[in-house]
Amino acid sequence: MNVLLVFAHPDPRSLNGALRDVAVAELQAQGHTVQVSDLHAMGWKAVVDHADFPDLKPEDRLVPVLASRDGYAASRLTADVLAEQEKLRWADMLILQFPLWWFTMPAILKGWVDRVFAYGFAYGVGEHSDRRWGDRYGEGVFQGKRAMVITTAGGWAPHYGPRGINGPIDDLLFPIHHGILYYPGYAVLPPFVLYQADRLDAAGFEREAERLRECLRTLEQTAPIPYRQQNGGDYRIPSMELRESLGGGATGFALHLREGVKA
Ligand code: FAD
After folding, report:
1. Lowest-confidence segment of 30-39, 89-98, 168-177, 245-254 by average pLDDT
2. Whole-angstrom Cα distance, residue 235 to residue 238?
3. How far lies 5's CA from each of 119, 149, 159, 203, in Å?
4. Domains of the chain, residue spans
5. Mean pLDDT of 206-211
6. Distance 41 CA to ligand 1 centre (A)
7. Flavodoxin-like fold domain location, by residue (predicted)?
8. Average pLDDT for residues 52-61, to the nearest whole number?
9. Quick one: which of 16, 110, 143, 160 could link to 9 by a disulfide (CB 3.0–4.6 Å)?
10. Residue 76 Cα to ligand 1 middle (Å)
11. pLDDT of residue 102
């Protein structure tokens, strides 16, 4: 497979940097071709502004959705964004790697998504009618590709368990898994999460590195998180509510998992 790893840590000597090197080496050992977008090393611009749209005059009002749509349609987005979009077309598998900061991805990575996932590319695609609500949630430009999160957290595993005070990790990652990755069509694999990252010693690192290698060895076989397809009949259109007959006793994010299917 072609694998794109988008890396968001400011220091390559960090734990995340070491895990990235483990991941790249293992992926290559498995015969995959790997590209890394190291956002800090690239000096990635994290905010959306006028400079993203060369056809926009300084005095023009910036409406990000429309500017993104027009810029993408005309291939008039900036070179850094176009290059990342090309990598995404190339990649069969996308890995987002980051330390968990304030319960989500660091701003630089969110800015990568904001700028690269353009209208007409990652959203706003497909037929919008009373029968379909576009190609999204399981359909879209990345359908047939896989994606996965690698993250490290200072908190303990039980803090992120079903009754943990931080909230379940599956819930915290839902906006990334479902909202950013599944939305444009990726099949999303269960994440690799390393807990108590700040207290990791050398022996712990070796153990975690091996767990990561093991996880990466089965990338092509691992069952994705069984999210429901938007256009598969489970949701009413246009309200996009799950039909009352579905979901069992689930509430919240768990409603959007197909019943009886294990990840
Ligand atoms: P580092 O600081 O680089 O390393 C962590 C430990 O790993 C060190 O002790 C280091 O010695 C050791 N280590 C072992 N082997 C190696 C090796 N081979 N290479 C490098 N280091 C090694 N945590 C949460 O749980 N929830 C949050 O919401 C949250 N929010 C945060 C917000 C901010 C702004 C910050 C700065 C931290 C936050 N944290 C949070 C903690 C954060 O998730 C951890 O600090 C982070 O995951 C650690 O990853 P790192 O790569 O920065 O680790």
Report:
1. 245-254
2. 9
3. 22, 10, 27, 25
4. 2-225
5. 98
6. 19
7. 1-214
8. 96
9. 16
10. 38
11. 98
Query: Ligand 1 pocket test: which of 200, 201, 210 has the largest number of ligand atoms within 8 Å of its C-beta?
Result: 200
CA of 14 to the centre of ligand 1 (A): 8
**pLDDT tens digits, 150-160:** 999 999 999 99
Class of 2-225 per CATH? Answer: alpha beta
183: tokens are 């939305």
Dihedral in degrees, nearest 10, Cα atoms 55, 58, 63, 66: -10
Distances (CA, A) of 6 to 87, 97, 108: 10, 6, 11
Q: Rounded CA gap, 170 and 173, in Å?
A: 5
Within 6 Å (CB) of ligand 1, which residues are found?
Answer: 9, 14-16, 18, 99-103, 152-155, 197-198, 200, 202, 205
**β 146-152/93-99 pair status:** parallel
Which stretches within the chain are classed as H helix?
15-29, 64-73, 79-90, 107-116, 169-172, 174, 202-217
Q: Are 54 and 38 in contact (CB under 8 A)?
A: no
Helix or strand (DSSP H, E) at 3: strand 2-7
> Can you give the pTM of this predicted structure?
0.97
Give distance in angstroms: CA of 167 to centre of ligand 1. Answer: 19
Ligand 1 atom at shortest distance from the alpha carbon of 100:
43
How much is the pLDDT for 259? Answer: 85
Asked whether 100 and 8 are in contact (CB, 8 A), the reply is no
Please answer whether residues 138 and 185 qualify as being in contact, where contact means their C-beta atoms are separated by less than 8 angstroms.
Answer: yes
Instruction: Give, to the nearest 10 degrees, the angle between helix 15-29 and helix 202-217.
Output: 40
